[in-house]
């Protein structure tokens, strides 16, 4: 079985998972210690080893088959790190969560990977991973997106991707998340606005080509 089929099967299994969430500054998030155990259990059952490594510019998630014949990797650019070790640790933890959520499709409107934790032990909740669900009610913060100026945000996001070698016509929500939105330059409402804008543009283009 190819490693990509194994990952697809793991994604399906993780859809059933009940994750405990905590409250962050912008909403709910799944802590890394909560996310890892079910993922590692799935990796063991599929005879895969998961680990993180890094270069001077990227943090890399790797999945390696036990026989060493198959490998999968995903990477994200490291932000500029300062002298504050605690702050650096938070950034690395955030990126690890991002890579895991991106690889295993652990997505939900109320579980935002852009959130940082707040120290509130009473704020733990349990949610089901519903990455295939589109019936989530918009939160107040999503409504606030409507107030964000259109031109500056979308042009800035587009320019960053184009400078990075991405064709303007190929911009998708997935590319936005992988390439620029993890950099924490924008607020959560701004990120959602940018994604929705380019998603609508893509749908218009597809509608016009029929």
How does this model look, in words?
With 210 residues, the chain is an alpha+beta fold. The protein folds into two domains: 1-135; 138-210, no CATH class. The chain has helices at residues 3-14, 32-45, 85-104, 140-144, 150-163, 173-179, 188-208; strands at 18-23, 28-29, 48-54, 58-65, 71-77, 125-128. It is globular and about 45 Å long. The termini are far apart. The model is unreliable at 109-123 and 132-150 (pLDDT under 50).
Give a short summary of the structure.
It is built from seven helices and six strands; from the N terminus they run αββαβββαβαααα. With 210 residues, it is α+β, with helices and mostly antiparallel strands. Helix 2 (32-45) packs across helix 3 and helix 5 packs across helix 7.
The percentage helix is: 40-55%
Number of domain units? 2
In angstroms, what is the radius of gyration? 18 Å
Which stretches of 5+ consecutive residues score pLDDT under 50?
109-123, 132-150
Distance between the termini: 37 Å
Major sheet: arrangement of strands: 2-1-6
- Compute the average pLDDT: 74
Number of helices: 7
Shape by Cα distribution: globular
Derived from helix and strand composition plus strand pairing, the structural class reads alpha+beta
């Amino acid at each position: 079985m190819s490693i990509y089929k194994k990952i697809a099967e793991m994604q399906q299994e993780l859809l059933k998972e009940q994750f405990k969430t905590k409250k962050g500054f912008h909403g709910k998030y799944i802590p890394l210690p909560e996310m890892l155990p079910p993922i590692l259990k799935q990796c063991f059952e599929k005879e895969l080893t998961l680990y993180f490594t890094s270069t001077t510019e990227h943090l890399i998630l790797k999945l390696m088959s036990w026989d060493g014949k198959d490998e999968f990797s995903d990477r994200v650019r490291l932000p500029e790190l300062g002298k504050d070790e605690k702050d650096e640790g938070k950034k690395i933890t955030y990126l690890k969560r991002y890579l895991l959520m991106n690889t295993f499709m652990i997505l939900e409107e109320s579980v935002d990977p852009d959130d940082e934790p707040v120290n509130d032990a009473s704020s733990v909740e349990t949610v089901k991973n519903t990455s295939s669900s589109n019936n989530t009610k918009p939160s107040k913060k999503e409504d606030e997106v409507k107030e964000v100026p259109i031109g500056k945000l979308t042009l800035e996001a587009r320019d960053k991707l184009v400078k990075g070698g991405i064709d303007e016509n190929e911009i998708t929500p997935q590319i936005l998340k992988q390439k620029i939105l993890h950099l924490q330059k924008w607020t959560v409402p701004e990120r959602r606005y940018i994604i929705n804008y380019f998603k609508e543009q893509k749908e218009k283009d597809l509608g016009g080509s029929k």
